[in-house]
Structure formats: structure tokens, C-alpha cells
Amino acid sequence: MNSSYFTYHINEVTFQLKDRVDISWLQELGTVFAVFDQQDSGNICFGVKQEGQKKFVKYAGARPMDYQGDPAEAVSRLRNAIPIYYELKHPNLIDIVDHFSVKEGHVAVFQWFNGECLHSHWSYPPPAKYTDPNSPFYKYKHLTI
């Protein structure tokens, strides 16, 4: 691992970011049991568990290893998406339960849902994402209406 990156160890997970950021707020949400750190969207996501309840936490404000953009752009996109998450509330979609600003970004908290990442570029880089029958995105796009 490149020593110019910052390694974080929180509860059951270890991950790297391109910059040092304060993510102490994450501990207040529960025990971190999963990290989704290979996103190229500018978000890093976590699975947290508190009092038997699991939540999915999306954070914009850091520079994940696969993100080439400006963290401020990712923060703006997440903030702009918040009203849409509430507007699209539906039994077949993940529920947003909270969102808040932190010193270095914005956080959205959702109910946990066991599933697959539709945009797993690390496992199915384009064009495989669109053409491989094992790709979660391909399977999703071929579901019946």
C-alpha cells in the first residue's frame, strides 16, 4: 500500500483515503462492520450496527482511492440528492432515515439492505458491467417489469 495514503482502522474494517479527514462522527452511528471504499463517485460508504439495527452510511467529503474529482463536488451531489431520496420513497427502494453535515462533508443514513453493488467497476469494469450476465448491473437491467 502506498505510504502517501492514509489508512484507517475502525472496528472491523480497514480502508485507505487519499487525505486525512475527521471521521470520528462515524463511531456515534454504531459499530462499523463493512466498508465500501472502491467507489469512483467520491463517496465512501459503511455498514454500521447499533442496538441490533443495521444502517448503510454514505459519506461525501473525503477522497476515496478510486475518486479522481474534487470532494466538494461529491458533497454537492450528495446534498442535492437528499430531497430526491425522500421524494422517491417506495417499498422497493432503500429508505433514507437521516442526513447531516459534518466538518468535512455530508452524510446520508439509510436502512440496511442486503444486496449487490450495481456499479462494481472493480469486478465488472465497462464494458463487462453492461454485457456480462453475472454483472449485478446487467442482471438488474434484465429484470422483468
TrEMBL record:
This is Protein kinase domain-containing protein.
